[in-house]
Known about the structure:
By secondary structure, this protein is of the alpha/beta class. The chain has a domain at 6-143 and 173-201 and 251-258: Rossmann fold. Helices cover 41% and strands 23% of the residues. α5 packs parallel to α7, α6 (153-163) crosses α8 and α8 (205-225) runs antiparallel to α9. The longest helix has 21 residues, at 205-225. The two termini are 32 Å apart. 44% of the residues are buried. The model has no long low-confidence stretch (mean pLDDT 93).
Amino acid sequence: MSGFSADWLSLREAADARARAxxxxxxxxxxxxxxxxxxxxxxxxxxxxxxxxxxxxxxxxDTRWLLTDNDPDxxxxxxxxxxxxxxxxxxxxxxxxxxxxxxxxVTATALFDLGAVSWIGDLVAQLAAQRLPLLACLTYDGRLGxxxxxxxxxxxxxxxxxHQRHDKGLGGPAAGPGAVAALAKALRAHGYVVHQRSSAWRxxxxxxxxxxxxxxxxxxEAMAEADLLPRDSADTWCRARLExxxxxxIGHTDxxxxxxxx
Length: 262
């Protein structure tokens, strides 16, 4: 499940690539090399395949990929006729497991903050049942920073974090900014070794103006529509941010977790 347009996924891909924790990706790749020939990686909520493109340079060259999403159009973009890339149309809210028996690693990008705590727990239980490692990147963790400051920044950040806990279609009210803690807790409860790294977006006007504009405009509209911020306040904040935002920081955390040794 991505639920996002190909244009939006393309707009954010460069920022995602800069932010991901390279050491965790390298660790996952090194572990894959011990799993024999042609390991199979299942990517959840693949969108247009940005996660695969980011991970592939650190993974064995013969890695096979299974990309899963509920959007056939983005999956078609992701596969591009590559024989080493399989796709599967799935609704992540309804399936108990999303990977075949010969899967060796599960990956995801910007997914777990959309899921309910119970959904996260169920997915981790399925991982543990098959003793599968997990590489989960860019899970939103609640941190927002704006420069220069505006009087409505704190109100917008609080409203956004409330909005992130609304139901996103994965099992009920989303974990949102609490997703990293929920994921780590569930993994450790099953004996996983959990490695975490900050993977914040550090956007600048010089490099990321279109992305900043899209975020600011989208947030202001969403907060007003959801009655989490008065329309006048949201519009005032949006105009000020579009006119002058030097830097925008959005906190994410990457997780690489490995099952306990047998």
